[in-house]
Design brief:
With about 550 residues, the chain is mainly alpha-helical. The chain has 24 helices and 5 strands. The chain is globular. The two termini are about 15 Å apart.
């Protein structure tokens, strides 16, 4: 593959990336761009307006630039799609109700510190500078939420209540991340003093946010979790990267859920005998020491060993994995909310791709049969192979395509597709591992039904209580279709209720990936050509994370 000459459209995309990094330094840190770690994103109404102005200006610039090749055509379509949607969400004032349990400024202002370098004194100086800006950032965020209260667009009561709890925990000197983080810094003198003061101020600012949410937002928060069809359709397009028929997708979700249940029943019989329940099979697996891990150190070691062995096994056989991508770090996250997630490498790969496991308090026992598919999802051939490959192809893609563009349906859909690939490739032949795979896939199918059902107020099937879907019925659906810790499931349900459209993007994205592969196979067959799955995956990964509406045409 020869190096591609940058075009006028690439220049627009590069300029947009640079200007956006200055307006959103938290995102710039996530992308691995250097020079922004001392700054903080402005979450005030003015900050959101400045980013919207940049989107409008960039769309005008694109009107003056003509594509010169297929890469340009994808970039142009993706920029227009994503920036246009950003503006739709801004004009609908969604930023004034941006509060949920997992992915809102409340969490972003803390989580960014997990990604910042800490190896040198200058790194800690950047941390001190950014920490000192947390109070102003939180006040700006509060002003955006206050604007939402004035305009009648307020997060649901459940999200506000959980936000109060999270903010209060970050404010509590006994549990605050900011206090422990700065207290453990390997620096002395004035910098140590600056860090301590900034950490204390950040914790205190979260205390102010907790009071603000409880006193000014909670009294206006609606009890109803549903956001309605109009808002949900925008969120769905944002996360999936394509417009889908929500009613058809809901019915498909019900069918897929039943199919997953039937497939799982067959494996239950294999593990625990005919007529056994899934609880019987889980008991058999949990009692087997071959699947047991004791303590987070053992969990981390197993994650790392599993990820490394998969990379070695797949490279040169099912994928060609370049040298920089063969390194992945498996980490125990400093948070304790039960989430498992991936963060991509920095632009120069000095920070490797990382798989994070946020272990809830008191959890010390783990079972590999539940989690092997998670390692494939977050690592290889899932997020790590996808995102790190996207960062690597700098000779073909501009910085916006490589570092900024991310569509959940494309990314999470690929990761679910990757889980099934590992089954297809023969890595999930162990019955316990297959049960874990299906438990996760069944949960993702349940989320399609739950998320669309609740937020669109659709009728619930009689087996789930009839009437209209609500949080109580959603809880019963989730408990029946995901055999996981109750505290984890509660957090998951709260996430779906407050982050509409995101959870279904995984399974819907997987569906669209599978359709794209089938189309490619059919096209090769119609041309009398042999279909190469390896080549298909190479072409797809080299595109980066495009909106799924663009993927079929981009694959050719």
């Amino acid at each position: 593959m020869t190096t591609r000459e940058p075009s006028a459209i690439d220049a627009v995309a590069e300029s947009y990336t640079t200007r956006l990094a200055a307006l959103d330094p938290i995102a710039a840190t996530g992308w691995g761009l250097k020079g922004y770690d001392h700054l903080m994103t402005d979450f005030s109404p003015a900050g959101h307006a400045a980013r919207a102005d940049l989107d409008r200006a960039t769309l005008r610039e694109l009107d003056q630039a003509a594509p010169v090749d297929a890469t340009d055509e994808v970039t142009l379509a993706a920029l227009r799609d994503r920036l246009g949607l950003h503006l739709e969400l801004f004009e609908a004032a969604e930023h004034t109700a941006d509060l949920n349990v997992i992915a809102s400024p409340l969490q972003e202002l803390r989580d960014v510190f997990d990604l910042m370098p800490t190896g040198a004194e200058d790194d800690w100086a950047n941390i001190a500078s950014r920490l000192s800006k947390v109070p102003d950032a939180l006040r700006g965020y509060a002003e955006s939420l206050r604007e939402g209260v004035r305009g009648g667009l307020v997060p649901a009561a459940l999200q506000v209540a959980e936000g109060v709890k999270q903010a209060a925990e970050l404010a509590d000197p006994a549990s605050s991340f900011f206090m422990s983080f700065t207290g453990g810094a390997p620096v002395t003198g004035a910098l140590a003093s600056d860090l301590e003061q900034a950490g204390c101020a950040a914790a205190a600012a979260y205390g102010e946010l907790a009071r603000f949410l409880a006193e000014e937002v909670a009294p206006h928060a609606p009890a109803k979790d549903a956001v309605g069809r109009e808002r949900y359709a925008r969120f769905s397009r944002a996360f999936v990267g394509a417009e889908v028929d929500l009613d058809e997708t809901y019915e498909w979700g019900l069918e897929e859920l039943q199919r997953m249940a039937d497939e799982q029943d067959a494996i239950v019989a294999e593990i625990a005998g005919p007529g056994s329940s899934i609880e019987d099979a889980i008991a058999v697996l949990d009692a087997d020491p071959a699947y047991a891990l004791h303590g987070t150190a053992a969990l981390q070691e197993w994650m790392q060993t599993t990820a490394d062995s998969v990379i070695a096994a797949l490279d040169g056989v099912h994928f060609d994995i370049p040298e920089p991508i063969r390194a992945i770090e498996c980490m125990i996250a400093p948070t304790q909310n039960g989430g498992i997630y991936y963060t991509g490498p920095s632009d120069d790969f000095s920070r490797p791709g990382r798989m994070w496991w946020s272990v809830p308090p008191g959890v010390t026992e783990f079972n590999t049969w539940r989690e092997r598919t998670t390692v494939h999802h977050e690592g290889v051939p899932g997020h790590h192979l996808q995102i790190a490959q996207q960062v690597l192809v700098r000779d073909q893609l501009n910085s916006w395509r490589r570092l900024v563009l991310w569509t959940s349906g494309h990314g999470e859909g690929w990761a679910l597709y990757a889980e099934r690939l590992m089954e297809e490739f023969g890595f999930m032949d162990d019955p316990g591992d297959r049960l874990g795979l299906l438990d996760g896939q069944r949960m993702r199918a349940a989320r399609v039904v739950l998320d669309i059902g609740v937020h669109l107020g659709k009728p619930a099937p009689a087996r789930w209580g009839g009437g209209t879907w609500d949080a109580a019925k959603a809880w019963e659906l989730l408990r029946a279709n995901a055999k996981m810790d109750e505290a984890f499931l509660r957090f998951e349900l709260n996430r779906y209720l407050g982050w509409p459209g995101q959870a279904p993007s995984y399974k819907v994205g997987q569906r669209l990936w599978e359709q794209a592969r089938t189309t490619a196979e059919d096209t090769a067959r119609s041309r009398g050509e042999e279909f190469s799955l390896k080549d298909f995956h190479t072409r797809a990964l080299n595109l980066g994370s495009v909106p799924l509406s663009i993927l079929p045409a981009a694959l050719g």
